[in-house]
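step 3/5: co-fold with zinc ion
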Amino acid sequence: MRSRTIALTVPLLIALAACDDGHDTAKPTPTVAATATSTLTPVPEPTATPAATRTATETPMPTRTPPPAASATETPTAGPTATPVLTIHDELLVSADDMMAWIETVVEQGIRRPGYPADEWAEQWIAEQFTAFGLENVELDPVEVKRWVPQQTSLTVWPDSAPQDALSIPCFALPYSAPGPAREGALTLFTGDDAAGKIAVVENPPLYLPQTVARVFSSREYDPDGEFNSLVQVLPFSPAFQNVMGPAIAGGAVGFVGIAQFPFDTRDYYVPYDAVDRPIPGVWISASDGERLKQLLGAGPVSGRITVEAAVDRVTSHNVIGRLPGASDEWIIIGSHHDGPWASAVEDGSGIAMVLAQARYWSRVPRHERPHNLLFLLNAGHVAGGAGLVAFVSRNAEWLASVVLELHLEHAAREARAEGGRLIPTDNPEVRWWFTSRIGLLEDAVEQALRAEDLRRSFIMQPDGFPPGSLAPPTDGAFFHPAGVPIVNFLTAPMYLFDAQDTLDKIHTPSLVPVSRAAIRIINALQGRTAAELRAAVRPPSSPPP
Ligand SMILES: [Zn+2]
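step 4/5: write C-alpha cells
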C-alpha cells in the first residue's frame, strides 16, 4: 500500500496525474478547469464511484466460449428477445487498407496541432464519417485550447575569443516556451546548478527501458517469443518528461538549449506539450549539433543568442462525439484524440482510424448485439494539456457512473531502430501497453483477446504508477481512471512519437485489424456486466512502485 491517503479534489488530481503519452507527475493545472467537486482518494482506489452494490437481478455472464479462429464468422443464433451469443462478424470489419486510406487522408492535411486548420478539418471530417456510418447525436463539443504557432526561431553561438566566427545552429522552438525579443548570454553546459543570466545547454537523453523493468508496472503479459527478457525500448522521453526546462528555469537561466539526444538525429521534438507557458525561450537542437556545441564549449567560453517568435492564443477546438444504442442502459466509451504534434500518422492518425473502424463496425451490428450503448469519442487538444479529455471527464462527471468501460485506442506503431542517425522502421510492432483497471474479469478479457489475436509484445499494464508516482496512465484516456471508470487504454510509445518523422511508414499496418478485433472481443466480454459490478471488483494496488 502506498502512503498517500490525503483526499484530493478532481482538479488537483488532474494537476498531479500524468496527462498524455508519458508525462511527468507535476502536471500543471490544465487549460480547461475541471468543475467536478467530488473528493477522491487517489490511491489505492477512487471513492467517488457509485455505491458498490451488486444486485441480484444482474444478468449472469454467459460462459465465455473459447475465442474462435480468426477466420470464423458465426451468424448470431439468437434474436433480440434472447441474450445473443456475441461473436465477431468478419464481413463487417474495416480492412487494414481502408484504415490506412483514412490515415493517409488525415495526414495529407498537414500539421494537426490544436487549432490548426488541419485539426479543424479533422474534426469536421470525423463528424461526417460518424454521421455517414449512422451514428446518433453526432456532436462537436467545444473545448478551449491554447494554440501555439511558432514563427521565427534561431540560435546563434560564438566563441568569446572570436565573435566573428558566429555559428547559426538549426533549431526548433520548445512549444509554449516564452516568445519575445532575442535573449543573449553566456552558454553553460547545465548540470543542475546555478545558471543565473546564462543560456543553459541541457542534455536530454531518452529513457532506455528494459522490458524486465517495465514488467514491474504490469499485471500480465503476452510475449510468446520471450522477447521481454532482453528487449530494451527507447522511449520518447527523458526522465524529466514534460519538465525539461524546469531545472534551468529554477537555476535562473535566460534561455534553454536542449540537445535531443535520440539515437536518430532530430530537432523536431514536440515536447513539452502541456500548454504551460514557460518564462524563458527554449530551442531543441539535434544530437550531432549538440556534440559540436559541446566541443566548442570545451574549448573556451561561448556566448549565444536565442530568438523564439511564436503566436499563442486561445481558440475553440472540439471533441467529436457519436453514439449508438445498445442492449443495456449503460455505456462503453471508445476513444482516442484527433490532434497531434505534426502531421503525425501514428500520433494519432492511427487512433482516429481505429476509432472510426470501431464506429463503422458497430454501426453495422444489430443493436441487440451491442452489449451496451456505445459512445465514440475523439478528443481535442491532446497536445495542449489534454484539454479535450479534461473537458469530457469534468463535464460528464455524474454520467461516468454509468460507464462500464472506457476503451482508448492509441498508436498502432512500428518499432524503429536508428542507423547512422537515421530512423529505420522495422517489421516489429512497438511494445504494446494495455493499461487496464485492476478488475480480474477485465484483465481476463484483455488477456484472452491478446492471445486470440496473437498481439505479441503486449503488457497488461497497471492503470497507475507508470511513470512512477502517476495516478493515471500516460494516455489520452488518463483521467477516466481517477474518476473511477473501468479502463482499458491501449497505447504504444515509439521513440519518434513526437517527431516530424512520425510518417505513414511508421504505422504497423499488420496490427490494425488484430487490434480492432481485440477491441471487439473486450467489448463483447462485457455483455451482461454492469458498471457497478465492475467497480465493486476493483482490487487495491498490491505493491508500491519501485
Ligand atoms: Zn495519442
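step 5/5: annotate
Residues 148-313 form a domain with the Glucose Oxidase; domain 1 fold (CATH 3.50.30.30).
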